[in-house]
Amino acid sequence: MRETRIMEFKETITNTFLKTVSAFSNYDGGVILFGVDDEGNSKGLSDVKQSCLDIENKINDSISPQPDYKLETQNNDKIIKLTVQSGAQKPYLYRSKAYKRNDTATIEVDTQEFSRLVLEGKNIRFEELPCKDQNLTFQILQRKLKEHIQIETFSQDTLKTLNLYDNANGYNNAAGLLADQNHFPGIDMVRFGENISIIQKRVTFENRSILEVYEKAIEIFRDYYQYEEIKGADRKKIEKIPEAAFREAIANGLIHRIWDVESQIRVLMFEDRIEVVSPGGLPAGITKEEYLSGKLSVLRNRNLANVFYRLGFVEIFGTGIMRIRQLYEKSLRKPEFEVSENAIQIVLPVWESNLDLTEDEKMIYGILSKNRLKSMGEIAPYVSFGRSKTTKLLKEMEEKGIITVEGKGRNTKYSIK
Q: Which of 147, 204, 361, 397 has the most CB atoms in a 10 Å sphere around its CB?
């Protein structure tokens, strides 16, 4: 047993646990075990009944507003389990400060994060706040609505229907993001050469409608990852990376990112992959496992998502990751997803056709696909069979023309052809 983001151990009862109660109440909830040391060893408490009263009194006297929690005893009444639920009346303060969990540590939130908690407690999202610029035009949105869903008339009532305007507050931030010109960041796209020190092209799309940003990003993608193959009188479009997968990644980045930070969505383009990195981790109420499996979808920017859905840029909410996986179902190389506290990264590899490899050969192929060159010593730790079988498989894959071999002896390196 070890401490995690939602599990903390306290060998004794001191006021420091109150910061964690604030953190659990402000975010995803969690458990504190009293009578357990930092290594997860059970030490027990001398007077559990009195300790429960002390914990209860400290929480009731020190945390505002009142959090939702439950106390239980475990291990023959030697351990106290404090379960704290995520609350609806955020922020929950200890000594006038709000806290959050950072891995296994509890830290005070910064000013920006505090503002987000205040909005969440009021059930208000950033995209619903009044936009600081009220002198907005919507020619791009109007054109897109006409092209995709045949809306001929465009007026303030259209914006009201899309939850982008109301008479009391004017245009909201979602409207600002969709306006022809705005003050928001966008997408920074970089095309690298053989390594990250060689930049072949860099372009940034910002301060404009995210509908145009979306469109421009796809145009750049097509320049590098699509081409036409001519056979006789026929022309065939070849996609090195499925465009539908890239569209999903960009659309997800635009409608799920946090918009109250001056940070671009980063699109890093390499010969063998694209990396899309969006600012902001997962919204409250969804775990990494739920996000990656597509079992649950929590919309951070529901008004933006609604517009993208109406325009047909995204399908049913919450299916983006599943769709990307399905698009790579017949590819040897699969997309990768990484979720951290402050960012979500999607890696789309260049499509590799299924070459009728055996399961063992696929294992080696997957290892080599991560890097350009690998030695036997770098491959061996990641396979479930011995070096002699690995050597034999590498030789057979070379003969099939699947991999190439460079160098000799200990300097031998293997790579995908």
A: 397
